[in-house]
Amino acid sequence: MSDSKYFTTTKKGEIFELKAELNSDKKEKKKEAVKKVIASMTVGKDVSALFPDVVNCMQTDNLELKKLVYLYLMNYAKSQPDMAIMAVNTFVKDCEDPNPLIRALAVRTMGCIRVDKITEYLCEPLRKCLKDEDPYVRKTAAVCVAKLHDINAQLVEDQGFLDTLKDLISDSNPMVVANAVAALSEIAESHPSSNLLDLNPQSINKLLTALNECTEWGQIFILDCLANYMPKDDREAQSVCERVTPRLSHANSAVVLSAVKVLMKFMEMLSKDLDYYGTLLKKLAPPLVTLLSAEPELQYVALRNINLIVQKRPEILKHEMKVFFVKYNDPIYVKLEKLDVMIRLASQANIAQVLAELKEYATEVDVDFVRKAVRAIGRCAIKVEQSAERCVSTLLDLIQTKVNYVVQEAIVVIKDIFRKYPNKYESVIATLCENLDSLDEPEARAAMIWIVGEYAERIDNADELLESFLEGFHDESTQVQLQLLTAIVKLFLKKPTETQELVQQVLSLATQDSDNPDLRDRGYIYWRLLSTDPVAAKEVVLAEKPLISEETDLIEPTLLDELICYIGTLASVYHKPPSAFVEGSRGALHRSLPPRTGSSESAESPDLAPSGGAPAEQPAVIPTQGDLLGDLLNLDLGPPVSGAPGATSSVPMGGVDLLGGGLDSLMGDEAEGMGGPSFSAPSAVMPSNLGAPLGGGLGDLFDLSGGVGTLSGSYVAPKTVWLPAVKAKGLEISGTFSRQVGALSMDLVLSNKALQVMSDFAIQFNRNSFGLAPAAPLQVHAPLAPNQSVELSLPLNTVGSVMKMDPLNNLQVAVKNNIDVFYFSTLYPLHILFVEDGKMERQMFLATWKDIPNENEAQFQIKDCPLSADAVSTKLQGSNIFTIAKRNVEGQDMLYQSLKLTNGIWVLAELRIQPGNPSLTVRGRVDPQALLSMPSWGAGGSPKEVMGSPGTLGKIKGPPSPQFIRSVGLWKVEGLQPNQINGADDFGRAKSLRPTLGMVWVSFGAPFQLYNHGLTKGRLPLLLSCPSPAFPQMPGP
């Protein structure tokens, strides 16, 4: 009879009966009882009361009964740890049983019982099993080491099990080798810093030998281990590839993908000129094609991996287009993936075949698939220029079908084709206009409006078409409203006499009747441009647009290289690195492809050292600890660089022109008029007397120390003890600081370790550098009993009294309760003061960076941060450090970033990231005048008034104070010409005065506030002041 009978019972009160049966003298009755217990346990009944009785059944020679008892133990040992110790003697005895199956079963079960009290008894049996004569026992024991390490890592290291595990890699049995590799890999993943798998050519040879003989999952473990190996040269890489290639013909798809991963990684080291390189490309295609004949779920996984492989090496599958053609019975998720791969493989050679397929797909019944097919035709036109005309013709044929969603998708992609090939296919506009009334989707309506506005001069009734959209302006989506506003302004600039009423109507709707800030701001900008200088408006609005790129959805190269290292895993299906979806240290492990053959990782630079001599020592130009600027830049940024920067980077700090061709080129011609030549900034080495950093360190923003993220992505340091109980009569205070969606808070844990109740809590801060103060009283709602703790979140603001502290982020706190008043000080991390509007405009960034002297710069290094430039930028943005620009210099990614403190001080930084190097280099700059303007930090003063006529700008009366007469960015002074301004130097050391669009733009160097109170009797009163909460911030130009 089947064992299913054990799951059909509905009896109640059977525990007593089972207890009696478990203690029966008859072996068969005992086995039946254990089966009933396991069945009850499986369906969720609590049978833990039978623990002692089931444990008594362990003393048996029957292997089936022993397995059942061990299964029960694994399930209930955690809830009955004291009872589980009763089974230890039996475990130890079973580990010496003559039957290897029982020995292996015992050690496996002991490893699965996650009870600390049992682990110490496991060590001796495990040591014996690791050296057992039977390979089945050894392979089981190898996995048990990994399980034990997860429970108690220190115990495993102390007992020397890791060394024994390493020895098993040389075992004669391939399955033992595979399990040893799997165990070491598992341990290494949870401890990335440890070098457990110290692979060398000898050990690699042993693994490759075992690869041919072990089971399929053993092969996967070994192949994944091989993928982490870095061959010393291309000859070794080729040798490994030759021995791995046979795995491509394995029946298990996981083995195939693991082999593909190894080959893709090692191909980086092979020269493309080698005959073997071409042979390897040919060998990779058939196994990938074979994967597409499996069931749909496996096809999907294979296609997601193929998508990555094709982006990295399209030549592998360039002749295999037909296998990606969609079948009628494919699920939608497979169809969409196949379509994506088809577009990536599209070329001039196969475009006719691809277009014929796509046109066929566009007549399918599945709406989502049809939409994607139509978009694919547009992507082919953009990718393969020779096919553009044929693609447009195909799209026109589809529009003639008059199927609504097909027409709308076709219009969206034709807009992109116009952007790629301007003034080439405008003959189709008439056909598009015929379908205007059928458009009901925002994206299609916006695309059609863009086409009408862009080619308004060629459409006779363009004003009527746009006016028809304007009738329901308020009912349109924001996307359509914005496009309509721009299109009508374009139309006005092309046909001003006929469309004046229309443009006034749309500007009125956008600025006066709309609640959308984006729409309102764009309306005001257009209105101001048109009313001030229509010629200039024409240059701005009708400027020549850059062509769109061929492939807009390619994965960023650094991320793609990382994902290639994760082929066959979940990361390759999500197309995200593990750190994006795996919590803890396992997700933080960063992998990258080896450097290509012939590329030098550390190119020699003539700037590194003078010829014929040792490297010249870089001058230490950073101010000392007592200096305000030194305080700010030394704060929270990581340890100082201990040696010459040339030692850590192939590009010397002093050898790169940061702004010439760099940020200047990003700004275009605008940057040229800012004044000041581009320069090569010397490297700044942090002097040793500054010592270790204060606070958490910038590295913490990258989650390197295991903190947590808030809702807005900002890093939160783990809680630490601020006030120990021995110093506060039994009151222990631990906590941390956080910033969530712009709100500051001090997160506290109050613990009562005294023998009396504590109540009447209150808190107060001393004056500090940034005016931190409690925004509400400390609320402890109930008295704190002995041995009790309470978690609180105290909201903070920055409107308290300001006094410069040493160090700058020092906070002195007083806490009162019914027992006494207690004092302590702590260091808060500076990034909680980084505000959300700290993204500086690019031109302003360039002007400010140039204006700050080189000596007001600090340099730091952040170690062990294995993140790509994009990942760094994303993580830092979570803590309100914004990336302004990005460029690549000789293989290094350079991020230019800005942040703004709550007191209005800006900090500018340059971040250097060398791919493959886990260390980042940071250079920071702060304008010293901004620091001087801080109340209680430097000199104080009151606002100055500047009087002058509209023709001239008078000098400041009295001796000018620098903190009041410098500014950041460009500010417009209307009604003046450069030759009419007197005393420009007195008015803030203006970097440049130049006419733009009939106005004068004046640029200054640090924050200030300008108030134009209007013209009075032909004079222009202005008010200059330092940043202060008392004055509202004036917007930029």
Automatic annotation (TrEMBL):
GO terms for biological process: determination of left/right symmetry; heart development; intracellular protein transport; kidney development; vesicle-mediated transport. Residues 834-933 form the Beta-adaptin appendage C-terminal subdomain domain. InterPro entries: AP_beta (IPR026739), ARM-like (IPR011989), ARM-type_fold (IPR016024), Armadillo (IPR000225), B-adaptin_app_sub_C (IPR015151), Clathrin/coatomer_adapt-like_N (IPR002553), Clathrin_a/b/g-adaptin_app_Ig (IPR008152), Clathrin_app_Ig-like_sf (IPR013041). Keywords: Acetylation, Membrane, Protein transport, Transport. Pfam families: Adaptin_N, Alpha_adaptinC2, B2-adapt-app_C. Gene3D superfamilies: 2.60.40.1150, Leucine-rich Repeat Variant, TATA-Binding Protein. One of its GO terms (molecular function) is protein kinase binding. Residues 584-621 are annotated as: Disordered. Residues 715-825 form the Clathrin adaptor alpha/beta/gamma-adaptin appendage Ig-like subdomain domain. It is found in: Endomembrane system. Its main location: membrane. One of its GO terms (cellular component) is clathrin adaptor complex. It is a peripheral membrane protein. PANTHER family: ADAPTOR COMPLEX SUBUNIT BETA FAMILY MEMBER (PTHR11134). Belongs to the adaptor complexes large subunit family. This is Adaptor related protein complex 1 subunit beta 1. It comes from Anolis carolinensis. The lineage of its organism: Eukaryota, Metazoa, Chordata, Craniata, Vertebrata.
